[in-house]
């Protein structure tokens, strides 16, 4: 099996993941998308997608999702069918509440409070969530795609900073 390094790895090929893949690849990041099921997520199951800006007349969700996938691949993203069972360097913190968000024009770190001990801990914000995994009032394709674009751009800034590069 070939070993390859990626700048940006996306778990999930729903609208948010595929949009993130498109924007990340287009900006020059070597991008991998891992999807356990089929590309498109829940959007692929829509019978008529009729309320997405720029899509008229209505299309079915499978065709819409297939177009998202083809766009991401056209910009260089690699999409692989694989289940993710373990992610290193991500700690799930229970019994914690958000106390503070730090940063000027974007989030640079967060301060969490352990509700059992009262201890405050600051964490650098280098992981981004997009799509329906985020808690938000509207779970629509348009917001998922927006989340994906924002996550790709913000992640790209972090990656380039770590590599001492500038935006391409």
State the gist of this model.
The protein is of the alpha/beta class. The protein is 29% helix and 18% strand.
Indicate the topology.
Layout: E1 8-11, H1 15-26, E2 31-35, H2 61-74, E3 78-81, E4 96-102, E5 109-114, E6 120-124, H3 141-162
Parallel strand pairs: 1-2, 2-3
Antiparallel strand pairs: 4-5, 5-6
Key words describing this protein structure:
29% helix, 3-stranded parallel sheet, single chain, globular, alpha/beta, 168 residues, 3-stranded antiparallel sheet
What does this structure look like?
- This protein is of the alpha/beta class.
- 29% of the residues lie in helices and 18% in strands.
- It contains three helices and six strands, in the order E-H-E-H-E-E-E-E-H.
- It has helices spanning 15-26, 61-74, 141-162; strands spanning 8-11, 31-35, 78-81, 96-102, 109-114, 120-124.
- Strand 4 and strand 5 form a beta hairpin.
- Helix 1 packs parallel to helix 3.
- The longest helix has 22 residues, at 141-162.
